[in-house]
Every structure is written in C-alpha cells, then in structure tokens.
C-alpha cells in the first residue's frame, strides 16, 4: 500500500494534565454555592468587578507567593508587540493593577468581590490542579484594622451561609508586624537575615503537623523523620527558640497579650502589631463573633506577601483521607493586609486588605458534610414525538415553547422517534420528571397525555404484571391542550412537595 493510501491517523482525545472537565452536576453545585457567597458579600456592601484572565507579566512579577523568579509558576506568552503576558496566578494582583489604573475614578474605600479561574504552571498531583476557581473580597483604601476585622466576620458569615455549623470552623488571625517584632527581638531583623527568617516561618508552619517538639527541632539544628531523612533547622539558640515557641504557642491571646507586648517592646513594628490584634479582638468581641474569630499567632500563611493582619478560615471537623486516616479538613481560604501591592503601581501608600476562598476545596468540604449535591438538578420535561409529519412536529414544538415560556425546563425529543420505548429510556436517563404524549387519536380530540414519570417509577414497583400496568395507565392524565402548562406546573409542584417531605 502506498503512503498516500494509508488510513489517516485518528486524533487522540486527551485532557491536558492538571485540568478537569466539569459535569453538569458540579457546575450547578458550584453556581449554587457561589450565589450564597455572593449574597453575603453584597449584604456587607461589596460590589462585583471583573478583570481579564491575562495580565502583563510584570504586573504579577515578584508578588507571586513563595517565588523569587518573575515567570515561575505562571503560563506566559508574548503578544504581537513582544510584550510578555501571563494567565493570572491569583485575583489580587489584577485587582491592584485595576485600582491603580482607575485610581482617579474609584471611590475609596473601594469594596469589591470577584470570582474566577486562576492558573498555576506547577506540577499537577492529587488534589493539585493547574486551573481552579477562587472567590475574593477586598477593601482598598481603608488603613484601619476595622476592615480586617470585618473580613474575618464576613468569612464566618459566608461559611455559615453555606451550611457549615458554628463550631465546625474557626477564623484564625495573626499579624505580620507582631511576627516581625518577634524576629527582631531575637536578633533576626534586617535584610541580611531574610533567609533565616524564612526558615523560621517554614518551621512554624509545621506546628500542626509535627507539634511543638518537632518545631523546636526545626528551629534549632534540624529534625530527622521516621524514614531517617534529615531536615536542616533554622539554627536558633535555646533562648531564641523559647521566645518563638512562646509566641506561636499562645492559646488565650487576652491572657498573653501583655507578655507579648513586653517581648516586642522597642522593635520597629511589633508594638503596633500587638495593638492591631487587640483592636481586632475588641471589634469581633463587640460584634459577638469572639467564638468564631480567634487570634492565633501560629498562622503564618504567605507572610512574605502580607504587611499586617493575616487570617485563615479553617474547618475543624475530621475527614477520612486517601489512606483511610482521620484528619482535620483544614484551610479553605484566607488572606490579609497587603498594603504594598497597589502602592508599587502608584508611588504612594495605598492600604488594602482582602481574602480568597478556594471554591473547589470548599466544595469538597461541603460534600464531606453532605451540604452539597443534595438538591438534584431536575431534568427537563420531555415532549415525546409520536408522528413525524409537518403538522404534528409543529404542534410538538409549540407545546415545548409554551412550557419554556412559562419558565418550565423542557425539550422535544430529537432522536429516532419511531421507537417510543427509546424516548422513555431517554427521559429516564435525563431524569425527566414528566413526559408529554400526543398520538393521532389525542390530536384528533385536541387533548394531551401527561405522564408523571417520578410517580410512575414508584408505582411500577407495586404492579406485578403487564396487564395490570396497562389497566392502571400508571400516573398518567389526559387533559385539553389548553391546560398543558397548568397541569404540568401542578404535577411538578406535587413532586417538589414529596421531595421536601422525604428530606424533612
């Protein structure tokens, strides 16, 4: 066989690694969840804004968390005038650019929210994707920690609006200035100690995993794990370690605030940070949120990025991981004050604070709690096709449009209509609640058969033979064409009532 006669190679369908196709059920669940979040943000006086998926790479630049290289972690390309553009890594850097570019028109404080996809050019793994959705809220132009305290309370209200019970979550708050003050107090201030400070932060971040003893080793010479692998420590002496462990080990902030203030006294920002935490404590307590928002010095998320208060929403209930172990679910979002981000475009100080919810991770948490996917998406009412002539098809289409105009989800069967059994099988697969049937006899009389497929399925289990089935004409009614919409609505409402009773 010649080269030209060879059968062309079929293109292989391949989903790119680190990306997912989303099903209708997932999309409906995410939309319902986002609407509940949006309602809370709107109630707090925040307005939506949308920025594009692409930004010029230098607008993202060094503010990528935990990265020293501008292009690390992002998908980039050059446009036709040789400028580098990147898919956004988060929703915060694009907001900073938007505020700076429109600063003269924006009313400060600028209170806004955004939901959208972000992209990470990182190695994918279990639960680690290259595209995922975030939902952010930010206040730009408010220098006081009232804005930070409000963010924490809004996070608490959001989790409760999604059905997470009080006691199953906590919003934990710390302050970058206090931690900087502690670092300065143990002799690790200044640019020359930036590397050692980062090692201390990484050690503190392992508190939940290794406990105080493990962190003590990581702050000192290092720690050997069960496999024998050795992790080099931050090299602090005993006195320095004690001060760091005192700070991150604070359980009751009100009782320890005085001792903490004494530790950071004389540092450049430490005392200011303690005062800010005291104010946040007073604000959340005054609003009755003290059991939901807790000051916790062990929170160190992204501290290289933030300039003041930092906060994290943590779910405290147990879930079973892939190894079958019971583990605490953990963080579903967080944020903090990032006063430097807008300022770098402006050449003047612009205070800002905000938080980000990981939508996919929060959806996983809600599934674990049984709070998601319970409201099954109702399939469309199916208008069946009994005759393919022009007049009949026109009628079937009219029935379909009448239902749609009344706000009822409906579709006309578009497969091979000659096998009626296939139409009912299709309705079953689609989860259709009702089928509309009109053959030649019904058409002559100007009537329609309306079949309650949900009730029919239930009754079919009680009928033992075909003769009884034919005689019963299970869950089926014949009505005049003019009564179609009214009868379908009544049938759907009865089904909804049955679902409510079953769920009660």
TrEMBL record:
Organism: Xaviernesmea rhizosphaerae
Family under the similarity heading: Belongs to the class-II aminoacyl-tRNA synthetase family.
Keyword terms of this UniProt record: Aminoacyl-tRNA synthetase, ATP-binding, Cytoplasm, Ligase, Nucleotide-binding, Protein biosynthesis
Pfam families per UniProt: HGTP_anticodon (PF03129), tRNA-synt_His (PF13393)
NCBIfam families: hisS (TIGR00442)
PROSITE patterns: AA_TRNA_LIGASE_II (PS50862)
Coiled coil: none
Record bears the keyword Ligase: yes
Keyword Ligase tagged: yes
Catalysed reaction equations from the record: tRNA(His) + L-histidine + ATP = L-histidyl-tRNA(His) + AMP + diphosphate + H(+)
Segments forming domain Aminoacyl-transfer RNA synthetases class-II family profile: 38-380
Subunit composition and interactions: Homodimer.
CDD domains in the cross-refs: HisRS-like_core, HisRS_anticodon
Name this protein carries in UniProt: Histidine--tRNA ligase
GO terms for MF: ligase activity
Subcellular location: Cytoplasm
EC number: 6.1.1.21
Broad class of the protein's primary localization: cytoplasm
């Amino acid at each position: 066989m010649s080269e030209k006669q060879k059968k062309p190679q079929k293109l292989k369908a391949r989903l790119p690694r680190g990306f997912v196709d989303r099903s209708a059920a997932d999309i409906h669940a995410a939309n319902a969840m986002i609407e509940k979040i949006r309602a809370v943000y709107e109630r707090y006086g925040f307005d939506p804004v949308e920025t594009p998926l692409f930004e010029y790479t230098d607008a993202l630049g060094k503010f990528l968390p935990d990265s020293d290289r501008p292009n690390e972690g992002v998908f980039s390309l050059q446009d036709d005038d040789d400028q580098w553009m990147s898919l956004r890594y988060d929703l915060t850097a694009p907001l900073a650019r938007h505020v700076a570019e429109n600063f003269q028109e924006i009313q400060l404080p600028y209170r806004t929210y955004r939901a959208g996809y972000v992209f990470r050019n990182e190695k994918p793994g279990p639960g680690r994707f290259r595209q995922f959705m975030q939902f952010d809220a930010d206040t730009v132009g408010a220098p006081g920690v009232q804005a930070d305290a409000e963010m924490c309370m809004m996070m608490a209200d959001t989790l409760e609006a999604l059905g997470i019970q009080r006691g199953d979550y906590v919003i934990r708050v710390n302050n970058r200035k206090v931690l900087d003050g502690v670092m300065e107090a143990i002799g690790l201030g200044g640019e020359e100690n930036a590397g050692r400070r980062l090692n201390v932060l990484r050690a503190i971040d392992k508190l939940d995993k290794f406990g105080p003893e493990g962190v003590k080793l990581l702050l000192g010479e290092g720690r050997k794990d069960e496999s024998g692998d050795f992790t080099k420590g931050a090299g602090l002496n005993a006195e320095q370690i004690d001060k760091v462990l005192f700070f991150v080990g604070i359980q009751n902030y009100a009782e320890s605030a005085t001792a903490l203030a004494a530790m950071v006294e004389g540092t450049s920002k430490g005392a200011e940070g303690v005062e800010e935490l005291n104010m946040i404590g007073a604000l959340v307590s005054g609003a009755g949120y003290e059991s939901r928002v807790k000051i916790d010095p062990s929170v160190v998320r992204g501290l290289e990025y933030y300039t003041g208060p930092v906060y994290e929403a943590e779910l405290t209930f147990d879930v079973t991981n892939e190894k079958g172990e019971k583990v605490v679910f953990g963080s579903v979002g967080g944020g903090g004050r990032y006063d430097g981000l807008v300022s770098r475009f402006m050449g003047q100080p612009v205070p800002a604070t905000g938080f980000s919810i990981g939508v996919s991770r929060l959806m996983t948490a809600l599934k674990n709690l049984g709070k998601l996917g319970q409201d099954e998406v109702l399939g469309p009412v199916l208008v069946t096709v009994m005759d393919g002539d022009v007049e009949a098809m026109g009628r079937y289409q009219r029935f379909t449009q009448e239902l749609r105009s009344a706000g009822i989800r409906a579709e006309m069967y578009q497969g091979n209509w000659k096998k009626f059994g296939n139409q009912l099988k299709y309705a079953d697969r689609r989860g259709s609640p009702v089928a509309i049937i009109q053959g030649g006899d019904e058409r002559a009389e100007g009537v329609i058969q309306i079949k309650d497929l949900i009730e029919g399925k239930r009754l079919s289990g009680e009928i033992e033979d075909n003769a009884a089935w034919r005689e019963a004409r299970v869950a089926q009614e014949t009505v005049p064409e003019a009564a179609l919409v009214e009868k379908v609505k009544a049938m759907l409402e009865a089904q909804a009532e049955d679902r409510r009773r079953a769920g009660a």
